[in-house]
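Amino Acid Chain and Its Fold in Token Form
===========================================
Structure side: the spatial fold of the chain, written down as a series of whole-number tokens.
Position: the record begins directly beneath this header, with no further notes in between.
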Amino acid sequence: MASLSSPRCNVGQDAVDFDLPATDGSRYDLARCRGTNGVLVMFICNHCPYVKSIREQLAETCKELESYGIGCVAINSNDPTDYPEDDFDHMKAYARAYGFGFPYLLDETQAVARAYGAVCTPDFFGYNSDLKLQYRGRFDASGRHVVLGAKRELFEAMKQIAMLGDGPPVQTPSLGCAIKWREPS
């Protein structure tokens, strides 16, 4: 399982619109996911140990961010051919099991992940109210294993974006499993 780091934040880059099916049976686009003060677009999956180590905290963090006017959405772009745990039926069960209060979307064509430049799971993109990128960093220092008492980097960055419109000047890239891209046909 290859681990990758997300690239540096391209501050000011526009959010990319999407229209994808969700585990709740609805379809979501960017406008439906955003909050009044911004949106957090997360690329995650079910099988990745980096995501597994933070999934409960991620659900709680997103719930907290709602009170700051930040909308949250998770997108799974992995090809489930070699990782059946990442298929849509498993996504539905995963979202229920871990109390995802945010939409969990399937990017079956992988076009959305490519448009965002996502490279790993988790890969976080934090946008302000103008839908300009302000944060592309990690959740916290946990990695594959929870680090007790770790600074809540993602939460603090998104809270700052909600309050000031700008992200922190220092951002540590996210580390995670490489997105499982489809073989070109």
Notes: The chain has a mean pLDDT of 93.
